[in-house]
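SEQUENCE-TO-STRUCTURE ENTRY
===========================
Question of interest: how does this chain fold, as expressed in backbone structure tokens?
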Amino acid sequence: MRQAAAVLLHFKGYAHCVDVYIKQCQEGAYSRNDVFEDTAVLCQRVNKQVGEVFSSPETIMAKLIQNIFENKLQNFVRDNLEESRKADAEQYLKNLYDLYTRTTTLAGKLTEFNLGTDKQTFLSKLIKNIFSSYLESYMEMEREFLRSRSAAVLQRYYESKNHQKRTLGTGGIQDLKERIRQRTNLSLGPSIDTHGETFLSQEVVVNLLQETRHAFERCHRLSDPSDLPKNAYSIFLLLVDHLCVDHMDYALEIGLAAIPSPDSKNANLYFLDVVQQANTIFHLFDKQFNDHLMPLISSSPKLTECLQKKKEVIEQMEVKLDSGIDRTLNCMLGQMKHILATEQKKTDFKPEDENNVTIQYTNACVKVCAYVMKQVERVRISMDGKNVDTVLMEFGVRFHRLILEHLQQFTYSSMGGMLAICDVAEYRRGAKEFKVPLVLQLFDTLHALCNLLVVAPDNLKQVCSGEQLTNLDRNLLHAFVQLRVDYRAARLGRHFS
């Protein structure tokens, strides 16, 4: 056969003979229902054969592969894509990704054959001829599908909650009211009652991230390398719009509007639940950014834009989280004030019978400490890392200031002063649970201050000069001594003149 082929080479009909050979060797070759695997097997078999028959086997192999790509593969791709292109965008994108991937994988296998001088360019051109019309419109379809699918995920969630999304942050009177509410104790009408619903859903977040991950994978495979960073960035912006703005930011706005005024009784402080879920979502968002977006943009100018956008989005939400946490702490303090106002009696610290005091600490102290411990635990559950210490330090400082101001409202007998010391010792025991050195130090100092309520008049000056009190403002020391019932009778003011 090799001799016959060599003789035919010099006749005009040689090219026709090659065409016939290429057609005949494909007969019966496609029987597996897998055109790509069948092509690989066919080319493996024919490659061995043409090496034995033709004097320039690389030319024959190139013609065979070109024929397969321009006929068998092109028809197969067109049939599969045209069917789903108008009817089902998701299936179309999946098919396009799958077919393009399998075609490029096949091309990779075909590079083991001798196809002439530049087989990479040759095969790339064949792939481009099949897919160019689909790839030109791919990115527009990807964005449109991701936009509509993400919107549908969110709509389905809010419908499941029987929730009609509110228009928030529209400016005008509502915006002014919200800003005043954030900075004062004025209620300005009722806050939104969400019945404890955070309007944050991990299932929604996972669905949005999963759809975006698939889009990044398709984008990586189907984009021209020069367009890849730009295309990946446009997908990222859609994720920001739907996950960060439409879902997270909306939930934060609702959460802020639902925070009651500090003087509300038995307020539902569920904003900490919003914080907890937002933290979880932040971590998932950050992981997607690092795992799926960064590899696509890391070596392009788009990296700076992506990092800046991510920074802006997170900072905007952190401002709202900080505002909500601050106002939630104010509500906690409001609850504690209410407990102290209703449970603390003047006779607690100035009993009618000094010799008949049987309690270790007052009822107000017991209830406040129980409430504080519950809130400390909620903060620990809701936050992570340094945020826990930061919020607990702020809560602890406000807790200390509240108790300090509260104690200065009463007059103390000798036994009442002892009871105040016992109360502060209990507050200090609670302060240890904060695990924040500054908070414990503040209550240690307050405990030392309360000793001024019971110390013998002759020892007052010495106690004021003690290690824990020597650095305090003398006006504060004097103010505490003035709370004693014997202040005037024992002429204690002379120690501060």
Q: What stands out?
A: The longest helix spans residues 119-160. Residues 3-11 have pLDDT under 50 and may be disordered. The CA atoms of residues 401 and 442 lie 9 Å apart. The two ends are 125 Å apart (CA to CA).
